[in-house]
Fold this protein.
Amino acid sequence: MATYMGKYTSAVCMPCTITLISKTYSTDTYGQNVGVESTKNVQGYVASVSANENERAAQNGLIAAWEATLWAFEYNDEMIVEVKGKRYSVYRYYYRSDGRVELYLGKRAGVVNGKNN
């Protein structure tokens, strides 16, 4: 069994650049809300999720993708994360006692833009 960041795991795990994406909204000249994204790159680790996590996510209509681990001080409740060029939603997070946070990333199950997720 392998370890990463002090935690035992049998999952595939790798160091990675994780992009945290926050969105703020402002009103344009026509009175419409316009979203503006800001990004922050951090270093962390990504691992595949366990079978139990996959099942738990599926019960809530989600497709679990990754578990990302990074320093807690770098995370400011961003709900969109990019890993390896793909965007995911944070559907759950857990602050660990060692100063790190685990982000559970996934996508909604179903059809988006005419394609199955």
Notes: The CA atoms of residues 55 and 64 lie 9 Å apart. The first strand starts at residue 2 and ends at 4. The domain at 13-116 is CATH 2.40.10.270 (Thrombin, subunit H). The helical segments are 51-59.
